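Example complex used in Figure S2.
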Amino acid sequence: MSATTSVPEKAPERPAAKPPRSRGDRLFSGAARAAGLTILAALAGVFIFLTIEGVPGLSQPTSTYAPNHDFLSYVGPLIYGTILAAVLALLLAVPFALGIALFISHYAPRRLAVPVAYVIDLLAAVPSVVFGLWGARSLATWLVPLHAWLYGHLSWLPFFAGPPSVTGRTIFTAGIVLAIMILPIITAISREVFAQTPRLDQEAALALGATRWEMVRMSVFPYARSGMVSAVMLGLGRALGETMAVAMVLSASPVVTLNLISNTNPATVASNIASSFAEATPAKLHVLIATGLVLFAFTFAVNFAARWVVGRNERRMAR
Amino acid sequence: MKSTSIRRAIVPGIAVLTLALSGCGAGNEASGNTGSGLSGTLNGGGSSAQESAQAAWRAGYQTANSGVTVNYDPVGSGTGRENFISGAYMFAGSDSALTTDGGELDSAKKHCGGDVIEVPAYVSPIAVVFHVQGIDKLQLSSSTIGDIFSGKVTKWNDPEIAKDNPGAKLPSTTITPVHRSDDSGTTANFTDYLEQTSGGTWKYPTDDTWPIKGGESGEGTSGLVAAVKAGDGTIGYADESQVGDLGVASIKVGSSYNAPSADGAAKVLAMSPKVSGRGANDMAIQVDRKATQPGDYPLMLTSYLIACPTYGSKTDADMVKGFLSYAVSSKGQQVAADQAGSAPLDPALQQQATKIVDQIAAK
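Predicted assembly (682 residues):
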């Protein structure tokens, strides 16, 4: 008999006996606890490093923040650029990724689902530098006519207002490259979560006369909501932190602009650190690490907010 | 059975192979000192413009002194000067001389305990490159270049460009100026040229960082050249040795238009005065870009080698003296010209530099 969860019903004065644990149990729980603590320690270590090295960067002489004049005006356009690129990437990737995941888990015949899943996972194996090279040299040139078309037909929107770039190295292209990079992450996790939906719920919906899509909407999505948010958060995390691909594709300037297709694009925090790191004086290095700290805090806050929204949803559903 | 015995042999076989082959690669150490018998490590760094010239000098010097290992780290001129002052580098390469208003010159004097040695060693013309369908040859005056890069002139068939190119058929493509996104000595020299020669139309300060917000940019010389190549109607500025097959504009000097030339750049440097108020060992030059002699090419970049006049150990002093003497010698300058496309120093400047470098000795 397994002695796991039962607590013997004794008289109140006597403390409840602990369930007997073998050495293997203790070893495993100890190792798991150690692993968890190590991860927390690593995270704390990174945060401490960022704070110690980054706080001097908040108060450097003005020339370090050239062509802006203080830390806030230096990091503002960078955070804006990071958010813009990440939002663009998510807008493009999430519908595609969820659609592909749903296709693999519920719509495709087994023979097709396995190779498609395999190919999507292969996309995750491509190094980001390669994506950067491909994006800058191939995709950018290929998208120049699209930029011109958007300018020609939709220039009344502030997103497509500026004169279109002739090299195609814009945040529009960078957003597309980022979308391709985060697609496999979101697809892989969503696909697993969709496949875990209880068969009984699905069969029940179908038995009641629901179509395939109604069944998915009624039984798969509510069950998978938390998992989908996790997947999107992981994808967002990668998009926020992506360095080399964005650094190679973007033609960056320290300005805030809504214009997606001109050759004046805001840099992202990560791509700015990558570009400026090699030639940075020690003072500039502190400033760069401070921008890294801001990105770290921002990613933390976004993840926290997403978890809270999902948690609130689940508590509402459990009532 | 057969597969088991083969599998058994694989791991020890690989181990034996590794041991045997590791004996092959040992030749880097000072196995036999040819030449001076000097041995040690020479650490320097700084300007990334000098990178290919430094590689050529390193190859030449190490062949003659196989006991010495020269390390040059192209971290950028600013960091190079800082590391020289702190003592991490024994010599530095820098696109601009040690600053007086930043206190660098005083700190360096204190570190060296004497007059700091600064000699020009790398002179390279900067080319104005363009990639426009329909234009093969282009002539531009300095004020036109300033107007193009500041955005005042927006189309290739603008009357200002037509004035510099009488009779040429110019397309109506939009101009896309491309600049360097990273801090660069090339940008500093380009903006200095525009400030000195554009007759007041270029109103931005001379700086390593491109002064105008916005516009297409490329990272590093190769990034800028790739960006210019990628679009139609683009124009940029880059070290002449890296332009590949892009079109290069001739700039107006006096009353004629000159293409980038190593000789022209060296001539402008030879005619320029030294910066006043520096020590006897300091050859910092205030480049006079208003030169108008025929054949001059004032849009150029001068890069210096910075060293101390005395070093703590004789080995250090000999290594620095040997390497710097090689770099400024006519042989070293020719090697750099062949491999990095630079302009060999003018004979007068070269003699002066050699005399200064010969002074390096142990304390």
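Chain A touches chain B through 28 residues (CB under 8 Å). Residues 156 and 162 of chain A are 10 Å apart (CA to CA).
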